[in-house]
Specification:
Length: about 60
């Protein structure tokens, strides 16, 4: 893929989505939650618990 090139996603021969380049660095902003434990890793169960608390606003 070259810079600025659009990508058409198809399913069963039909166009279903178009992925386009984003030139505005302030347009896309994603929050990155802190999923950490004492040793830097979390188990799958700990991860699920963190997600559950986050979805309920219990940070």
């Amino acid at each position: 893929m070259s810079a600025g090139e659009d990508i058409i996603v198809t399913k069963s021969g039909k166009d279903t989505a178009k992925i386009m380049a984003c030139y505005d660095p302030d347009y896309v902003k994603e929050e990155q939650p802190a999923y950490r434990s004492s040793d830097g890793w979390v188990t799958y169960e700990e991860f699920l618990e963190l997600r559950r608390k986050r979805s309920k606003g219990l940070n």
